Amino acid sequence: MKEKIKIKVLNIVSAIKMFSIKCIEKVKNVLFKIWKIIKRIIAFSMKYVALPSLFLIIFLILPMLFEKIITILIENKIMTDNIESGYLDFYATILSGLFTLVGVALTIKYESNQKKADETITYKPILAVDGINKNINCMTREVGLGIGYSSLNSDPDSERKCEEFFEQQKSHNLKYRLYIKNKGRGETFNAVIDDFKVVAANWDKETNIHSNIGGNQYIGEVLKDEYIGIDVNLPNYLFMPENMEDVLWYELRTDILISYSDMFNRIRYQYCIHTIYEVIVEEFVESQPYFYKQGFKYAKVGYKILDIMPEMRIYSKKKKKFIHEYEYVTEKL
């Protein structure tokens, strides 16, 4: 009986501890968020309120302070009234010179910023899809999709089957070349293919199709009116449903992400090429490489490009991510 009571008490104490730890964590998170907001308010106040106010107060107080000092000096017969007027003129000259200097500095800063903004717009690199499978000699990069292999540990022939499977995947890949042209006036700087990914496959919510790009692919500089070619490899064999249920056609959606900067390295862009394919089941393979899912079979497939929808994004320092070009312009306004 005592042991049961002891266990219950320990359980209650443990539950109270867990609850208190969770509460403390929540309070910490709330306090951290409040502190971040306070820091932003202080930074904003210092930049747009405190420093200008301090500057204004100093210039309002200095003349009165200077006049008080001169009055004391005259009362103590250290300087005369004639000298006082000369000092006031001298002080007025200094003040007017300072105001002129500040005005010139602000004008130069504004014109410099305006020049940079004009240059950024004038020499903006603009990547745009310009066709498929053209006969153009240009720099090329390669991306592709594939599916993984799964086998039982108890299968003694799994290694051979795995090799055959990947050999079949490599040798039967369908390929097309996507041409992208720099239609802007400026060249790209540090252009990189960030990713090639599957966005959706309407026949399989948890698809086993994956990108085999294996990390970023460096492109570098793309000059004005210059092309780059991207070879897109698509798997010729996929696991597809045996029966089409509530699906008019099989649809695969992919994204190619290319990031690059302008020639001044001031703005970072991301060009997203969203492609929609119709996946056509040509025939199911009798010999299945492995069991994937109930109702799915290994099949030979073909593809038809339904649509290519490019989207331009710009890196937002405020949100610390790439956002749509129109959203970026709105953010700046």
Structure report:
By secondary structure, the protein is α+β, with helices and mostly antiparallel strands. The protein folds into two domains: 23-122, no CATH class; 127-332, no CATH class. The protein contains four helices and twelve strands; from the N terminus they run H-H-E-E-H-E-E-E-E-E-E-E-E-E-E-H. The chain has helices at 2-75, 81-122, 158-171, 325-332, and strands at 127-132, 139-147, 174-182, 189-201, 209-211, 217-220, 227-234, 237-241, 250-261, 268-284, 296-316, 321-324. The strands form two sheets. Strands 4, 6, 8, 9, 10, 11 and 12 form a seven-stranded antiparallel β-sheet that branches. Helix 1 crosses helix 2 (81-122). The mean pLDDT is 81.
**What series of H and E elements makes up the topology?**
HHEEHEEEEEEEEEEH
Q: How many structurally independent domains?
A: 2
Point out poorly predicted stretches. Answer: none
Proportion of residues in helical segments: 40-55%
The number of helical segments is 4
Could you provide a short overview of the structure?
With 333 residues, the chain is an alpha+beta fold. The protein is built from 4 helices and 12 strands; from the N terminus they run ααββαββββββββββα.
Would you spell out the secondary-structure blueprint of this structure?
Blueprint: H1 2-75, H2 81-122, E1 127-132, E2 139-147, H3 158-171, E3 174-182, E4 189-201, E5 209-211, E6 217-220, E7 227-234, E8 237-241, E9 250-261, E10 268-284, E11 296-316, E12 321-324, H4 325-332
Parallel strand pairs: 2-7
Antiparallel strand pairs: 1-3, 2-5, 3-7, 4-6, 4-9, 8-11, 9-10, 10-11, 11-12
